[in-house]
Amino acid sequence: MQSTHEWPGAIAAGTATPTDRPTRAAALLQVLATGGYGLWLWLGLSLLLGLSRLGRSGTLVPLGLGAVLVGAGPVLACLRVPGLATWHGWLPRPGHRPTRSALMALATWLPVLAVAGLAHGNNSFWVTRLAGALLMLCSLVSPLLATHDDRACLSAPLQRATALLPACRITIAAYTGGLWLWLSVLAQGGFDGGRAAYLWFLLLLTLALGLGLLESGLWQSLREPDTPTGGGVAGKRNRFSLRFVAALLSYALPCAALLLGGTAGSLLAAALAAPGCVLGQLLERYLYETALADAAGAKPA
């Protein structure tokens, strides 16, 4: 059995069990990667629709930021960093075949490289727009496939309890990726206020509301079983207080930044919103996966 930090990714490779617990470092890499996929998702959509007119540098900056967010996990796995040696359940070593979700994640880098090479001018060339469509599609499929593989290793009752998890992960990607995109655009000085900005901020606020409802539904479905490590009365109270902090960081801080500094193009507001949301989602994901590991250990497979 692998150590506890490799849950749930190592489950897909058959190297761990659902009772293993995640660590904060592994959860952080997962949250960063989800935001990176969301950033690529929005960038690919903007290229497909012909909305990305910031030129080559305006495309490469968010593309590179997404590469840093997504690429941190495989780089640390290749460097054999203790506690982070697996990536999507795959040990990147000679003799170890990549898992299905790892292959999909690797394939996502192909349209990333294509967009990096084709970005030019107003990005209206049809091949650039096609590369953007592929980038959007791969960025959507990769987290969905990883979530499906994780859920497939759970018992039937827990699979039903996590039925909202795929939709939740995609909403997280779109929400956090949108905040990172907002930050990258402001950092380049390419912010253009007006109706488009209002619609963008309204979309992010709507995603925040939808994500809050999905996460509440996930916790309600899980019902946190009574286990010695996290299901008792004291454990539930402590978990509730930590979830409240996670909600403040994930929703209250970014939404306040959007409402107060969004239309004004405040770089400080964006610099607070995106990292704050990452911290909130880190705490939320760690708490949920710990509770899910407790439930998996308490219920028969």
UniProtKB/TrEMBL annotation:
<keyword id="KW-0472">Membrane</keyword>
<feature type="transmembrane region" description="Helical">
    <location>
        <begin position="167"/>
        <end position="185"/>
    </location>
</feature>
<protein>
    <submittedName>
        <fullName>Uncharacterized protein</fullName>
    </submittedName>
</protein>
<keyword id="KW-0812">Transmembrane</keyword>
<feature type="transmembrane region" description="Helical">
    <location>
        <begin position="126"/>
        <end position="146"/>
    </location>
</feature>
<feature type="transmembrane region" description="Helical">
    <location>
        <begin position="197"/>
        <end position="219"/>
    </location>
</feature>
<feature type="transmembrane region" description="Helical">
    <location>
        <begin position="102"/>
        <end position="120"/>
    </location>
</feature>
<feature type="transmembrane region" description="Helical">
    <location>
        <begin position="60"/>
        <end position="81"/>
    </location>
</feature>
<keyword id="KW-1133">Transmembrane helix</keyword>
<feature type="transmembrane region" description="Helical">
    <location>
        <begin position="27"/>
        <end position="48"/>
    </location>
</feature>
<feature type="transmembrane region" description="Helical">
    <location>
        <begin position="240"/>
        <end position="260"/>
    </location>
</feature>
